[in-house]
Design brief:
By secondary structure, the protein is α/β, with parallel strands linked by helices. 36% of the residues lie in helices and 16% in strands. The chain has 13 helices and 14 strands. The strands form 2 sheets. It has an 8-stranded mixed β-sheet with strand order 7-6-5-4-1-2-3-14, with helices on both faces. Strands 10-9-8-11-12-13 form a 6-stranded parallel β-sheet, with helices on both faces. InterPro entries: Glyco_trans_1, Glyco_trans_4-like_N.
């Protein structure tokens, strides 16, 4: 028997538009998810900043995305407060939140909240999600990420996705390797340069380098390594990015941290480009060693891998994405999560009773006074933003 369409509120970060015009990993994924959910017949309302380039209905919190203020706490706090106000007037079956602060609002809602954890869960981030208790249903983006905090309130694991049609496929590769990512030590760009030089192969570096920490890493580790055979491309997008991914002999991605996912690896595979990486985080879930790339335990083994990777079949790389990492696969799996959590919420409601948010162990129920105070806090945040030195315009009207 066909299931009824779901009404989904999708809360996205306020820093980039969807889809983003340049950098924006989370935003690319969520834009694809929204469109795939709409194609499956669901009603999706996105709450975000700037323009709407998706198939969803749209409610805006900021008239312009707050990319220049990335890293500051107030933009996301104001966004969370405004999103909560919008949600008070939306009739939806489930809220899907992709922000850091948004899940804090779940405790005061009867509608279940699904929160995708896009970052690490080790250390303080894990403590934060534990404090949420069972008020938000968490979704991991890899089994590796979930494994680092198995005690959290996980509702499922859903891999991120790319649309293979958005990437150019090339079976014939050029004889240079590509590094594509952020300009941070944990991505291992300096190690990629060293491995390529040791192998006698040229390397092109495409990386976001705009934040102070990224610029400091570039000056300390990357600039001294530039020279013959090492080409700095900077941040690239659009056709330039597609051309680089399709032409490279391989993507060299010597991870130095437990990457929760690693979208660039999937983008490379969709382009028919194998991946040479290390067994950190989700890399072994994405790359099949010896089939779609090479995974090496030791840095000293990377140069030889850059020679051996020529034996990997580009067609097999792309097929792996078609089978496992498309927006359609992602949307189907999220729909399973939505139906599971909405079903659980309905099961726990007594017939005819007023709905209320489940209360985590050790937490007191939400009272009318709490809701009044929360509304006052949201209004205070808005007024603070309007009176700040860098004012923002908050508009809550629905956009066409």
């Amino acid at each position: 028997m066909p299931q009824s369409p779901l009404r989904i509120a999708m809360v996205v970060p306020p820093f980039y538009e969807l889809p983003p015009r340049g950098y924006g990993g989370i935003e690319v994924v969520v834009a694809k998810l929204i469109d795939a959910l709409v194609d499956r017949g669901h009603e999706v309302t996105m709450i975000g900043a700037g323009r709407n380039g998706t198939k969803a209905r749209f409610r805006r919190t900021y008239s312009e995305p707050q990319a220049e203020r990335l890293g500051e706490p107030l933009p996301e706090a104001v966004h969370a407060a405004a999103a909560a106000e919008i949600l008070d007037h939306l009739h939806v079956d489930v809220v899907h939140d992709h922000t850091l602060l948004g899940p804090l609002q779940a405790r005061g809602r009867a509608t279940p909240t699904v929160a995708t954890v896009h970052g690490p869960v080790i250390g303080e981030p894990g403590t934060y999600y534990r404090r949420l208790g069972d008020t938000a249903h968490l979704v991991a983006i890899s089994e590796a990420q979930r494994g680092f905090a198995p005690d959290l309130a996980w509702a499922g694991t859903v891999h991120n996705a790319v649309d293979p049609a958005d990437l150019d496929f090339r079976a014939q590769k050029e004889d240079w390797v590509l590094f594509l990512g952020r300009c941070t030590p944990d991505k291992g760009m300096h190690l990629a340069i060293d491995a390529a030089r040791e192998a006698g192969r040229g390397i092109k570096l495409a990386a976001k380098c705009s934040e102070p920490s990224e610029k400091a890493y570039f000056e300390q580790e990357i600039r001294p390594r530039l020279g013959a055979g090492v080409e700095w491309l900077g941040e690239i997008g659009g056709q330039d990015k597609r051309d680089a991914l399709a032409a490279a002999r391989c993507l060299l991605f010597p991870l130095q941290w437990e990457e929760p996912f690693g979208m660039v690896m999937v983008e490379a595979l969709a382009s028919g480009t194998p991946v040479v990486t290390m067994p950190r985080g989700a890399a072994p879930e994405i790359v099949t060693d010896g089939v779609t790339g090479l995974i090496r335990d030791r840095l000293e083994d990377l140069p030889a891998a850059l020679d051996a990777v020529g034996d990997i079949d580009p067609f097999r790389c792309r097929q792996e994405v078609v089978d496992r990492f498309t927006p359609q696969v992602m949307a189907a799996r999220y729909e399973e999560v939505y139906r599971d959590v909405t079903g659980r919420t309905a099961t726990h409601r007594a017939p005819g009773a007023r709905t209320r948010t489940p209360v985590a162990a050790g937490m007191r129920p939400v009272t009318a006074t709490d809701k009044t105070m929360a509304a006052a806090a949201r209004q205070s945040a808005v007024e603070h933003a309007r009176g700040s030195a860098r004012p923002v315009r908050l508009t809550l009207e629905q956009q066409a």
